[in-house]
Design goal:
The protein is of the alpha+beta class. The protein is built from six helices and four strands, in the order ββαβααβααα. The protein has a domain at 23-118: Nucleotidyltransferase, domain 5, CATH 3.30.420.10.
């Protein structure tokens, strides 16, 4: 929607007050731009571990190959890392054998590849938009994410700084 506003004004789009949110975990493969999205009800270490397992099931890895996963400093990522790597608990051996976790230093979100994808997603799907309910927004996000489940140039080029 477009409208005329006085120069310098800051228009606001009203939305119903809510504490509800759409919780998506995302993994992007920098070489191809492929995106894997997993939904959960909450953000916590248990959801992270479940999301890792679900994503590893979706990825076809050759024998004796691992995926490198970059995590930032969100508390639930730190706890998942501690349980999987530092304490090396036996119930997470399935994750350790297929995954190498790399933790980013604090305040380095620009190095986290998935943050580049979230930034573009917000700009193209949710920014300055009104969704009458959470299901409508979730549907718009799902439709957008569906485009990037296979190799694509858009997300590959977002992550291209990693290959140089």
């Amino acid at each position: 929607m477009r409208q005329w506003l006085p120069k310098g004004s800051k228009p606001r789009i009203l939305s119903p007050p809510s504490r509800h949110k759409v919780a998506n975990s995302g993994f992007v493969f920098p070489g191809t731009g492929e995106l894997i999205i997993n939904k959960s009800e909450v953000f916590n270490y248990e959801a992270v571990i479940a999301s890792l397992r679900e994503s590893l099931r979706k990825v076809c890895l050759p024998e004796n190959r691992k995926v490198a996963l970059i995590l930032d400093n969100v508390p639930w990522y730190k706890k998942a890392f501690r349980l999987i790597e530092t304490e090396a608990l036996p119930e997470y051996a399935d994750i350790r054998e297929k995954l190498t976790i790399i933790c980013l230093p604090p305040y380095s979100l620009d190095l986290n590849l998935i943050e580049q994808c979230w930034r573009v997603t917000r700009r193209e799907v949710t920014h300055n938009g009104y969704f009458s309910d959470l299901q409508t927004m979730d549907g718009a996000l799902n439709k957008y994410f569906e485009e990037f489940r296979s190799p694509n140039e858009k997300f590959r080029s977002l992550c291209s700084f990693i290959h140089k």
